[in-house]
Amino acid sequence: MDNSKQQKVLVFDFGAQYGQLIARRIRDLGVYSEIVPCDLSASEVREKNPSALVFSGGPASVYAEDAPSIDPKVLELGYPILGFCYGHQIIAHTLGGKVGHTNKGEYGPAELHTKGGALFEGTPESQIVWMSHRDAVVEVPAGFTVAASTDVCEVAAMQNVEKKIFTTQFHPEVKHTECGKQLLENFLFAICGLEKNWSIDNLAESLIAEIKEKVGDKRVILGLSGGVDSSVVAALLSKAIGKQLICVFVNHGLLRKNEPEEVEAVFSRQFDVDFVHVHAEERYLELLRGVDDPEQKRKIIGTQFWKEFFNVAQEKATDGEPITFLAQGTIYPDIIESGARKTGGKASTIKSHHNLIPFPDGVSFDLIEPLDHFFKDEVRALGTTLGLPDSLVHRQPFPGPGLAIRIIGDIDSEKLRILKDADAIVREELDAYNARLAVETGDLHSQHSCWQYFAVLPDIKSVGVMGDERTYERPVIVRAVESSDAMTADWAKLPHDVLAKISSRLVAEVPGLNRVCYDITSKPPATIEWE
Ligand code: XMP
């Protein structure tokens, strides 16, 4: 039996900048952890049957009017508690200590002097920690003692050993806190007595069990794009509920070469789901004819997706059990990026997601988002555990509007043919380049491997000469960037022989091309995509 989730650490989210990292760090240490809204009531907390609670940081002051607060009864439930930054201050404030303004805030590294104690067991008396605060606890609540100080902050850590409440002004979850991992281990294993028993391998099992219980004999519908997140959700749901899952794959004709065939092969043969391949290629081409504005293209593609999706939903609704649930591949960073679930918790997430989906009148679903606690690399690892092929699990990021925003100007089937063929060559050569780098550096994600790489077709022609003939054909632009999160990117300093091979292959193998350019702009000032 999978008992890995019988131990569970709940991370109360006070809107922390670093908060999302805490649950992740705890899972990496082998204990299941999930984030919950900070305003859960004591009875809701008890219902979740946690082993320990962690209170995250957050940007507010405990004295601010709309400061996130807790149900004070949560502190009386008897669970061990670890609090950081705002979490440290709210515990002091709620239990009758005093939070005040220090003369100057502390931001960045600080030297901490500890007085020993269970949380600091095995760490040096003087250690570097990461601070980011203006307010500070100036008087500890009754029953607490000061466990560590910095020059600026007298109560840099406090503890109530009897109640197993340990709090720090600094952030143990960030890498710059040199003993942060040890402090988390001390809390989880020595103080709470938990066992290391959770890994990505048993995540699949427990998620499948949860989905089965939630869905029962109802049906679930999912828009499958072929991207990592929706593919992992589809694989997970297929293991949990099989043909009760309807996977709607809207083929807009703007995917990369061979992708639709691969998605269909995986989800109609390897996984047992009700797979619907909607061939909408012609409809999309018609809708996009003559449209050259990138935002207009995005809008048309997004709106048509939901039309196609709801057509299938409506057709399917007439045969079999009701379709009660809509599954989505939302992952934790999506929630952070969209600004949802800051301090308001799950309810606000569900609302904001619903707002993005243009439900037809009278249609509503409950949402299932099984990946919403997890980070991309955890989701990829889960996909591998579930048996998805590497080509799906380790796909480079690909925009929802697909090749439409890589054909500058208006789109037609001939331009799509050229771009698909060109893009396949760029990917083949740079996949091979990344693989060589991985072997040379012994690192699968070496600093200089290309993170995203593709071809772009500009809306111009240029003169060339092939054989003895003058040509007047299209150039193609190769884009390859190094990045970790797409927020910033540098153009990849590809070796000349790699560029030369890409160039000669493109012109030799793709009819309609006679020139190759390499984009050597970083982001900023450019963006990764051209449109
Ligand atoms: P930019 O071009 O803004 O792209 O530097 C950053 C990342 O986002 C992807 N991208 C999109 N993804 N829909 C998407 O799903 C879009 O409209 C879109 N535009 C850009 C881009 O591929 C890169 O990874």
Structure notes:
By secondary structure, this protein is α/β, with parallel strands linked by helices. Helices cover 35% and strands 23% of the residues. The strands form three sheets. It has a nine-stranded mixed β-sheet, sandwiched between helices. A five-stranded parallel β-sheet has the order 12-11-10-13-14, sandwiched between helices. Helix 5 crosses helix 6.
Rg over alpha carbons: 27 Å
SSE-based structural type: alpha/beta
Helix share, percent: 25-40%
Q: Which compounds are bound in this model?
A: xanthosine-5'-monophosphate
Terminal CA distance reads: 50 Å
Give the beta-strand count.
19
Mean pLDDT: 91
Strands side by side in the biggest sheet: 2-1-3-4-9-8-7-5-6
Identify the notable features of this structure and list them briefly.
531 residues, alpha/beta, nine-stranded mixed sheet, five-stranded parallel sheet, 15 helices, 19 strands, globular, binds xanthosine-5'-monophosphate
Short description:
The protein is of the alpha/beta class. The chain is 35% helix and 23% strand.
Layout of strands and helices, then pairs:
Elements: E1 9-13, H1 19-28, E2 33-37, H2 42-47, E3 52-55, E4 81-84, H3 86-94, E5 98-114, E6 126-139, E7 145-149, E8 157-160, E9 165-168, H4 180-191, H5 200-215, E10 219-223, H6 228-241, E11 245-251, H7 259-270, E12 274-279, H8 281-288, H9 294-317, E13 323-327, H10 332-338, H11 346-356, E14 366-368, H12 376-385, H13 390-393, H14 413-441, E15 452-456, E16 462-466, E17 469-482, E18 490-491, H15 496-509, E19 513-518
Parallel strand pairs: 1-2, 1-3, 3-4, 4-9, 10-11, 10-13, 11-12, 13-14, 17-19
Antiparallel strand pairs: 5-6, 5-7, 7-8, 8-9, 15-17, 16-17, 17-18
Helix pairs in contact: 5-6, 5-12, 6-12, 14-15
The protein binds xanthosine-5'-monophosphate.
Xanthosine-5'-monophosphate is lined by residues 298, 397, 399-401, 452, 486, 523, 527-529.
